[in-house]
Specification:
3 helices, 35% strand, 130 residues, alpha+beta
């Protein structure tokens, strides 16, 4: 569904998917992770004038699920106490996406790394799945 939205907006998408047909992780958890990552990437890329793209990599290897999104952004990213702040005016109903992802990956003793430099935003996740 999210990729259809990206395609309709003319955003270049690079997919690198290497996952088995069945994973031992509830679809709800995957939906929270991918939904929030893609929502954030789409929102950021919609503000980019030149070369908008979203790279999505999902790889499963030896009980580890690796998910990575990379996309350009414009503007300033504000942080407070290690937490990225939302740019939405309605702060009560927005800004919880990355926190929701953190809660899910904690269930799997996973880790999340966020980098935003040179106007490229990337999120990498490692989840242990058996």
């Amino acid at each position: 569904f999210k990729l259809q939205e990206v395609e309709q907006r003319g955003i270049k998408t690079n997919l690198d998917l290497k996952i088995p047909e069945k994973l031992e992780i509830p679809s709800f958890d995957i939906t929270v992770i991918l939904g929030n990552l893609l929502d954030n990437a789409i929102k950021a890329v919609n503000k980019v004038n030149e070369n908008p793209f979203i790279n999505l990599k999902i790889k499963y290897d030896k009980g580890r699920l690796i998910i990575e999104t990379v996309n350009p952004y414009t503007g300033e990213i504000r942080e407070e106490k290690g937490r990225i702040l939302t740019t939405h005016r309605d702060k009560e109903n927005h800004g919880i996406g990355l926190q929701s992802i953190k809660k899910v990956i904690q269930k799997y003793d996973g880790i999340m790394n966020i980098d935003h430099s040179d106007n490229i935003f990337s999120v990498s996740l490692l989840i242990y799945v058996d």
